[in-house]
Design a protein that fits this description.
mainly alpha; Tetracycline Repressor, domain 2; about 0% strand
């Protein structure tokens, strides 16, 4: 069909949105939240090294990391699909590809849903056939927990959403351990607990910064429904529990790890105390200091796990 022409015989501009394959692919990639996936993989590889007490086969590492990335991408994409209404309200998430912001969205909801399901299926098949089915089941458990328990069940209903729902982010260590050993034993459970107790201080610090965003979207994150003093106190409590759990791993991971975990834990606790002190003094909380430190802390802690796992056992 030819385009109609104006009085001067000049075709008017075509305002129909023409989406290229490249544009859609990029949008679908961004829905996977690649920066979060990076952090999940940072915990998976050291866990595999600790489980092996050395370097597992490169093929197994590649399969597990790729399968884990696909599973995390699936969960994150489905989360974006389900939360697209509140993502449009919150400034922090208003640029996500499913959010139109007055114009055509970069990707359609149906495309995002299909992509999330396909990524999960690919993760299951890859891990199941090339690693083992326990790791595949655990990866599926992470997806289902994040989508149904956290996103659909808890996020919009309770201030305990991130405490319980954050468990989804702990599954990658179980996947890594199971891929190497075919089982889940107590060191893997301790690593799960480390991330479980790390998540509330990490996320509550971010939520303190963006509490107005969450309030406008009707999401009852703890900083929205509790005072800053209460949030800072709970961050401190969870931080102490997290450090205690990291030290409980020392008998298995070794003395070098234990010393390093104590030093890193002290660093984390100092900043958590500073946050509480600033709030108590009525100063600006500056919670993003703890948020960024928490990422560095977890990265360094698991780097130590990786290094000590490769050291000769004496």
């Amino acid at each position: 069909m030819t385009q109609a022409t104006g009085a001067l015989g000049i075709a008017p501009p075509d305002f129909t949105e023409r989406r290229s394959v490249r544009l859609v692919a990029r949008a679908l990639f961004l829905l996977t939240k690649p920066r979060i996936i990076e952090l999940l993989l940072v915990t998976t590889l050291p866990t595999m090294l600790l489980a092996q007490r050395g370097l597992p086969g490169i093929g197994l590492i590649a399969v597990t990391l790729l399968g884990g990335a696909l599973a995390a991408g699936s969960a994150n994409t489905l989360n974006c699909y389900l939360d697209r209404d509140i993502d449009a309200i919150m400034k922090r998430t208003s640029r996500r590809p499913l959010v139109a912001n007055g114009g055509p969205a970069a990707v359609k909801p149906g495309e995002a849903l299909a992509s999330g399901i396909l990524l999960g299926a690919a993760a299951t098949v890859l891990l199941g056939l090339l690693a083992n089915w326990l790791s595949a089941i655990l990866a599926d458990g992470a997806i289902l927990f994040y989508v149904f328990v956290y996103t659909m069940g808890l996020k919009r209903r309770t201030a305990s959403n991130i405490v319980i729902g954050g468990a989804a982010g702990c599954f990658p260590v179980l996947v890594g351990w199971a891929a190497v050993t075919g089982t889940v034993t107590w060191p893997a459970i301790l690593l799960f607990a480390v991330i479980f107790f790390w998540t509330p201080p990490h996320f509550w610090a971010l939520a303190m910064k963006f509490k107005d965003d969450y309030a406008s979207a009707g999401v009852p994150m703890l900083p929205v429904v509790a005072t800053a003093a209460s949030v800072a106190r709970k961050i401190l409590v969870y931080s102490y529990i997290m450090v205690a759990v990291t030290l409980a791993l020392a008998p298995y991971a070794g003395l070098t790890y234990g010393i390093s975990a104590a030093v890193l834990g002290g660093w984390f606790l100092v900043e958590a105390h500073r946050l509480r002190a600033r709030v108590g003094a009525g100063e600006a909380a500056a919670p993003m200091r703890l948020f960024h430190l928490s990422i560095a802390y977890l990265t360094l802690l698991f780097a130590v796990i990786a290094i000590t796992a490769l050291l000769p056992r004496g």
